[in-house]
């Protein structure tokens, strides 16, 4: 057995994280977090899809120690790993989004749900963050929510476009939530009674967001190359490949497959991000090799938050960064960008 005290391995904590989360999070909340739409086919396929990616590693490149640092829409970050937007964080941990922000630290990008239970002004994030947006039927009513987020430091708006309404999820019973306080729901909306979400999103909504927010707009929920180009033509600054964790249309394509098509269509026009089923640094390497600029984790960050608050989130990110560093170095890459020719 090789012993390398100067290169500590993340250990079994990452592998056991789902079980730690399950034991720490209330059963009704856990069922909601884990639920996939319909028969959960898409949700079940997510992790396996990344494991199907195979690498052609490089040698004799004088790569040395890998440097994970990169930029996302011009913001320098410690690695291409980020935290995807998730709701119900205060149901998972009392400190909710504040703990998630503290766990993300000074140089990890995290995306905050517009449905979050913490006021943007109270987030106090030490590092960069973006606002995820669901537009209400009257999009103008979302303007003060964006304004509050930008005033609190949000550097971009991430428009979710794959959710005209939530997909049907079996095993999630509203009655199980009766004892759970949700008074904080949509705390950043000046009027909580805005109706549900806009069901007729169009390219013009991207242009409106860009003009109204005054910050870059990322479009999340893209699974096709032609849709990615329509987003860019409408004014989007970046495209985010996602199938909503398998929580919308069941049997939607996995994001590893979709990422190939989107990256091929977008080319050098914009940055492309991805989430869905990322569970290790090697999964992240697969996403980088397929052309992603950033790789976001969703459920694992929620598990870590439930298991140990901000310390759990920090430990998750540290473990993933260590795994990604090793994967890059073993593949002969000095930077995340060099992973793009590993396939």
In short:
By secondary structure, the protein is an alpha/beta fold. It is built from eleven helices and ten strands. The chain is globular, with a radius of gyration of 19 Å.
Describe this protein's structure:
With 343 residues, this protein is of the alpha/beta class. The protein has one domain (17-333): Aldolase class I (TIM Barrel, Alpha-Beta Barrel). It contains eleven helices and ten strands. It has helices at 17-24, 27-34, 41-51, 89-92, 96-104, 143-151, 203-213, 225-233, 255-266, 281-289, 299-330, and strands at residues 70-72, 75-77, 81-83, 110-112, 129-133, 157-160, 217-222, 238-241, 271-274, 294-297. The strands form two sheets. An eight-stranded parallel beta sheet has the order 3-10-9-8-7-6-5-4. The longest helix has 32 residues, at 299-330. It starts with 16 loop residues before the first helix and ends in a 13-residue tail after the last helix. The model is unreliable at 1-8 (pLDDT under 50).
